Amino acid sequence: MVAHVLVFPFPAQGHLNSMLKLAELLSLSGLHITFLTTDYHYHRLCLHSPTHARLSRRPGFWFRSISDGLTDQRLRSADRILELYESLTYNSSSLFRDLLISNQNQDGWPRITSLVVDGIMPFAMDVANDLGIPTIAFRTSSPCSIWTYFSLPSLVQAGEFPFPAEEADLDKRVYAVTGMESFLRRRDLPGFFRQARDISHPFLDFVYAVTLSTTRAKAFILNSLEAMDGTVLSHIRTVCPTTYAIGPLHSMLTSMSSHVLINSQSDERSTNSATLRREDRSCLTWLDNQPKGSVLYVSFGSFTVITNEDLLEFWHGLVNSGQRFLWVIRSDLVNGVEKVGSPLPSLSVPPGVVEGTSERGCLVAWAPQEDVLAHPSVGCFLTHSGWNSTLESVVAGVPMICWPFFVDQQITSRYVSEVWKIGLDMKDMHGREIVERMVRDAMEGEKAQELKRSAAAMAEKAKESIREGGSSYLNFQSLVHYLKSTDD
Ligand code: UDX
């Protein structure tokens, strides 16, 4: 019998992206796979994702979906994530159990022998544990953020958290997160730490509870590599001893699928996008016509919401920097101006600014990001420091300017600038002058050259890790070995 793994991500773009890649990698390694998502996201995958189209034709690969219990589509935005989480816990839990039970009696759908579930859905782990199915937890966030969540009791015990209301200094150093004593400041702790006046803050409570729940899994998977996160990984292994660092997953998948395609002489194209939105590929043609390394790519990920004032400050800053730019402006990026049925929001932008961009700017509602970052015309990435975006930039060797928005992004941006030294941290800074200065610093002059060299060196490490014998390659082989043993 072939071992059969059910992969179940939290229903959000950043989670689906990396977990669908993991699912495909496991499938290429000879395992049967069922990829489970919610009806809402499954529908969008079917509409927009070439990966879905390709994998749904692959023997031994099944897609299944269940309801997330929500009827209002707007509830799936970042600010309502707790509602989605609660709805999944209370509504989808029993549907998930029914699905696993029905699997045991269904012809043509082999018995599921193990699970890889998103570590922010402990309910799925509990159902699987109840049914005696071995489960591995996968977290899609940066290891440095996960270790900070694990360190919450140390922060509280040291009196470093919650921040005293009377003392607002966000530059104050924090010492209680082991391994980060030399560079961590209050402002680098995950976003919601600032709002929490006590440890019963609902988001804090949620993040800590889900993080602790991963210790109940048989093992833990992180999308990272030893060369970037070795120190943090060694700390995480003190609480989750079997932690597989198997990233960057998108790079591993590109490498493994090209290897399989060469060997099988198949004409199957390797498109790896799990996109939930329609990609506007015209920006690649626009990039073809720009000089090498001349374009700043700007994207704030799948969730971030900014104010119209912030949008204008970025706009002026970008135009005044004199650099070329490609900017993803999602229809729901700007708070309160989403236009249903329109790919781009209507913007209230002064006319002169629009003229400036039309000469050397390109706007899209959603880009094929991995292809954009790999394009030779792209010289820098202004990012919200989402973990997928960060890894995609690392692999492409593109330096970053970080403007983190929430959860793990605040600490990831600190690592980008202070630990890996492959970008600049614009955290908490606002205003067109700052944007202009940072863009210039990252795109031209000595600092830009320095960042480019460090980014190229890090890209090489990332590529080494996924080559045969590299750390992520070997960790992935161990994971496959374990999953295959679950059919015994
Ligand atoms: C958030 C968190 O920040 C992240 O760390 C967590 O693990 C998941 O949730 P998100 O805002 O979705 O992430 O950002 P990110 O993790 O960077 O993922 C966004 C994904 O969307 C990336 O894989 C990126 O390639 C893709 N994307 C983004 C596109 O394909 N096109 C775009 O135009 C913008």
From TrEMBL:
- Family from the record: Belongs to the UDP-glycosyltransferase family.
Listed GO molecular functions? quercetin 3-O-glucosyltransferase activity; quercetin 7-O-glucosyltransferase activity
Protein's UniProt name:
Glycosyltransferase
Gene behind this chain?
LOC120264452
Q: Which residues form a coiled coil?
A: none
The record ties this protein, via Pfam families, to: Glyco_transf_N (PF26168), UDPGT (PF00201)
Q: Kindly indicate whether the keyword Cell division belongs to this entry.
A: no
The organism named in the record is: Dioscorea cayennensis subsp. rotundata (White Guinea yam)
Q: Residue ranges of the Glycosyltransferase N-terminal domain? A: 5-42
* Record-listed E.C. numbers: 2.4.1.-
